[in-house]
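Students often ask why inverse folding is considered easier than folding. One informal answer: many sequences map to the same fold, so there is more than one right answer. In these notes we will look at a single instance of the problem. The structure comes first.
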C-alpha cells in the first residue's frame, strides 16, 4: 500500500465514517476525525467498530512504508490518546489494539511522560 492509499483503505473499512471537509487530503487531520468517530463508537458501545479499528491500525504496521507506520503511531494512536483524554480514559482502547499497536501505544505513553527517546528507538521494527 502507498501512503496516499490509506485514506481509501479507511473509507473502505469504515463506510459510515464521515470525514470533515476541512480534513480532506490531510491524513493526520483525518486521523483526528477518526479518533472522534471511535470515541462516539465507544460511547455507543459499538464494540465491533472498535475491534475493526484496532485491526485497521494494526494492519498499517504490516506495510514496509515508514510514512504509513508513522501515520499509524503519530496519526491514529496519538489522536485517540489525545481526543479520548478529554472525555474518557484512552487506555480503554488498548484492549482493541494488536500487538504492534500496543507497543507503539506504550511508547507514546512514555513520550507523554517525558521520555523524548520513546519513539526513536528502533523506529517501527
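Output (designed amino acids):
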Amino acid at each position: 500500500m502507498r501512503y496516499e492509499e490509506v485514506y481509501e483503505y479507511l473509507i473502505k473499512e469504515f463506510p459510515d465514517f464521515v470525514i470533515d471537509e476541512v480534513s480532506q487530503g490531510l491524513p493526520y487531520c483525518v486521523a483526528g476525525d477518526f479518533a472522534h468517530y471511535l470515541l462516539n463508537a465507544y460511547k455507543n458501545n459499538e464494540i465491533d467498530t472498535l475491534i475493526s479499528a484496532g485491526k485497521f491500525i494494526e494492519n498499517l504496521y504490516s506495510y514496509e512504508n515508514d510514512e504509513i507506520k508513522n501515520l499509524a503511531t503519530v496519526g491514529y494512536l496519538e489522536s485517540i490518546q489525545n481526543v479520548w483524554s478529554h472525555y474518557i480514559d484512552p487506555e480503554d482502547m488498548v484492549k482493541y489494539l494488536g500487538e504492534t499497536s500496543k507497543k507503539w501505544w506504550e511508547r507514546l505513553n512514555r513520550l507523554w511522560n517525558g521520555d523524548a527517546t520513546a519513539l526513536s528507538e528502533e523506529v517501527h521494527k
